[in-house]
Amino acid sequence: MDKTKIIKITTAVVIAVLAIIYYISNKQETNTYDNILTSDVVVENKIEENATEEKLKIKVYVTGEVNTPGVIELEEGARIQDAIEGAGGIKSEANLKEINLAYEVADGEKIYIPNLSEPSEESEEQSSTERPSSAGSGSNSNSNGKININKATATELTSIPGIGASTAQKIITYREENGKFKTIEAIKNVSGIGDSKYNSMKDFISVK
């Protein structure tokens, strides 16, 4: 083989090797760039998702002893304390003794801040328990002298042992929002009425 052919073959081999190296290097750079773009897209999507989550809002109705009662817009996960602040804060006569300020509020919920002059649940129970004989005196009592909790007014409900003005209003509100009680046991679905209070009133109430 003459020298000229050797040079040509060597040159061809070198060019081929360089082409392969260039191809491999260029492919790696392309893959790296694609990975960077993919990572950026993932990060942007996460940022957008977080922004969407941060924008979730709920509305609650705050009434009673607050400066600006009404419907308040809050971020999801807000507490009663946040709702009170959104309603302009409490008035000087507000009674927060039985309010759990750390309670997480839900969309559409009603929050009532009572006045100091209103009796507490404890005093209501004591007062109403002292007058069990009046349970059948309301116009919405049946032939057995029991109060129909599906029809009774707030005044009639307070004649039931263990029920004061605040609890009577809760019963009426529950009735308006959820319909009639199917059984007398269903009254335990009302906030503030547990087994103990239910046992003290069950013989004085009916749903018909």
Overview of this protein structure:
With 208 residues, this protein is mainly alpha-helical. The protein folds into three domains: 1-55; 57-113; 121-206, DNA polymerase, domain 1. The chain is 45% helix and 11% strand. It contains six helices and five strands, in the order αββαβαβαααβ. It has helices at residues 3-54, 80-86, 121-129, 154-157, 165-178, 195-201, and strands spanning 57-64, 70-75, 110-113, 147-148, 205-206. The strands form two sheets. The chain has a three-stranded mixed beta sheet, covered by helices on one side. The protein has a two-stranded parallel ribbon with strand order 4-5. A hairpin with a 5-residue loop joins strand 1 (57-64) and strand 2 (70-75). The protein is rod-shaped and about 125 Å long. The chain starts with a helix and ends with a strand.
SSE order and pairing:
Elements (H helix, E strand, L loop, with lengths): L2 H52 L2 E8 L5 E6 L4 H7 L23 E4 L7 H9 L17 E2 L5 H4 L7 H14 L16 H7 L3 E2 L2
Parallel strand pairs: 1-3, 4-5
Antiparallel strand pairs: 1-2
Q: What is the CA-atom radius of gyration, in angstroms?
A: 36 Å
CA-based shape: rod-shaped
Helix/strand-derived category reads mainly alpha
How many strands, which pairing sense, and closed or not: the largest β-sheet?
A: 3 strands, mixed
Mean pLDDT across the residues is 78
* CATH hierarchy: architecture of the largest domain: Orthogonal Bundle
Number of helices: 6
- Regions with pLDDT < 50 over 5+ consecutive residues? 122-138
Write the CATH fold name of the largest domain. DNA polymerase, domain 1
Distance between the termini: 117 Å
